[in-house]
Amino acid sequence: MSNHPIEMFNYHTWATATILGRLKELPSSVLHQEVNSSFPTIAHALSHMYAIDAVWYKVLTGTNMREAMGSYAALNDGLLDSVEAYADRFAKLGDQYKAWMQSQSDLEQSIMLDNPFATVRETKLSEILLQAANHGTYHRGNITTMIRQLGFASTMNDYSLYWYVKEASK
């Protein structure tokens, strides 16, 4: 039996790599082309996704959330020049998450999460993995819309496709 939070995070890394793969097929200008959407450019959306994933990783590895959020602005504002640079950045962080997940014996253990946008809450490590995956899904949807607004087709990256791709790769 698989661990669903880990499986959802694995889906998250696969789906992010899938949308980045599609972006690599498009003209490089789409990364920084302005659109009227949730973010001014696809680069802004990718930087936000990465920054949040990095913050959650810091929380999972023992950093207080308020302190982890201190790195958010620099990561969010640090736009990269190419899709390849984003792909490398996401892949490295995905590897860090994978190593962390493999080192965990109990993802149902709780930590006290001091969320600066809410209150202190006892939160399971598994819930944080699910939050990171859910957040990525939301913003990959934004990026899909932005790609379409720029006149291109996006790519399917639904969880159900992940099932089949994963099965086919066995």
Give a quick set of tags describing it.
globular, about 5% strand, two-stranded antiparallel sheet, about 60% helix, about 170 residues
Q: Which runs of at least 5 residues are low in confidence (pLDDT < 50)?
A: none
SSE series: HHHHHEEHH
Strand content: 5-15%
Number of strands: 2
Shape: globular
Strand order of the largest sheet: 1-2
Helix share bin: 55-70%
Main β sheet profile: 2 strands, antiparallel
* Secondary-structure-derived class: mainly alpha
Mean pLDDT: 95
Indicate the radius of gyration in whole angstroms: 16 Å
Total helices: the number is 7
Distance between the termini: 16 Å
Describe this structure in words.
The structure is a single chain. The protein is globular and about 45 Å long. Helix 1 packs antiparallel against helix 5 (83-102), helix 1 (4-25) packs parallel to helix 6 and helix 2 runs parallel beside helix 5. The model has no long low-confidence stretch (mean pLDDT 95). It has helices at residues 4-25, 42-60, 65-68, 72-77, 83-102, 125-149, 159-168; strands spanning 110-114, 120-124. It has seven helices and two strands. Strands 1-2 form a two-stranded antiparallel ribbon. The chain is mainly alpha-helical and 170 residues long.
